């Protein structure tokens, strides 16, 4: 049984830990609110540009095969090499979020490799690691890495996204990869962050929804100055926006996961303090009882 002095020291230590985790929880909560606002503001624009580019690409490919051949970012080709842009947290203390993202990236690579192997191919998977946790996962697993980006901070800018997207686009244009997937954590709410995989390159047509025009009745667009000029300016911007949106989602997910993890740590510390206090009282009561018995025994002996 530990002494009362040892128990007091441990209670003091756990209280200090609880203060630290409580402060980190409050900081993460404040950052999460700002990150959540940025995500909600950027989502409509990202969704609209994704739908616009996809529909324009569908219309262009249906009506102008030469244009589809000229725009390499739209061109589908046999997949021999797979590229994965893995966006993960830069810091720890955010629960199982980094592990879930890394697991999603590994699952994507495994599923795509299995699918292509069944078709007679032997694909190679290359990574663009964004964030320390993803970089460490790629290095630890001894996977091929094209580039790494770390320290993107709590407020990533469009310049950060452009640098990341440029690496993916260059690898796609050079033929180093034939398809590029984007893996990141989508912010759903404070307690839910869902790892997702989306195809970044080549551009995919939108999924059919109820109420969409039937095949053969797609909308016709009037281009000014011309289709090729518009697509050459719009497609790189489209890739930048998708990466930028993924960065914002990743930051919001990281801050919310850290807030929840620090709240759980604070609650656990408080529970431990209660248990230690109860133990301390029991030990102290036992010591007092022992002293009383000794006094009584001594008085009887006299």
Summarize this structure briefly.
This protein has 302 residues and is an alpha/beta fold. The protein is 62% helix and 14% strand.
Descriptive notes:
It is found in: Cell membrane; Membrane. It is a peripheral membrane protein. The protein has 6 helices and 5 strands; from the N terminus they run H-H-E-H-E-H-E-H-E-E-H. With 302 residues, the chain is an alpha/beta fold. It has 2 domains: 4-20 and 263-301, Orthogonal Bundle (Helix Hairpins), CATH 1.10.287; 35-258, ATP synthase, F1 complex, gamma subunit (Pyruvate Kinase, Chain: A, domain 1, 3-Layer(aba) Sandwich). Strands 3-2-1-4-5 form a 5-stranded mixed beta sheet, sandwiched between helices. Helix 4 (132-140) links the parallel strand 2 (124-130) and strand 3 (144-149).
Name some characteristics of this structure:
Pyruvate Kinase, Chain: A, domain 1, alpha/beta, 2 domains, Helix Hairpins, five-stranded mixed β-sheet, 14% strand, elongated, 302 residues, 5 strands
Q: How does the major sheet shape up?
A: 5 strands, mixed
- State Rg: 28 Å
Contiguous runs where pLDDT drops below 50 for at least 5 residues: none
In CATH, the homologous superfamily of the largest domain goes by the name: ATP synthase, F1 complex, gamma subunit
Order of SSEs: HHEHEHEHEEH
Helix content, binned percent: 55-70%
Please indicate the count of domains: 2
Strand order of the largest sheet: 3-2-1-4-5
CATH class annotation of the largest domain: Alpha Beta
Instruction: Please count the beta strands (DSSP E, at least 2 residues each).
Output: 5
Q: Find the CATH topology of the largest domain.
A: Pyruvate Kinase, Chain: A, domain 1
Alpha-carbon distance between the two ends: 32 Å
The shape is elongated
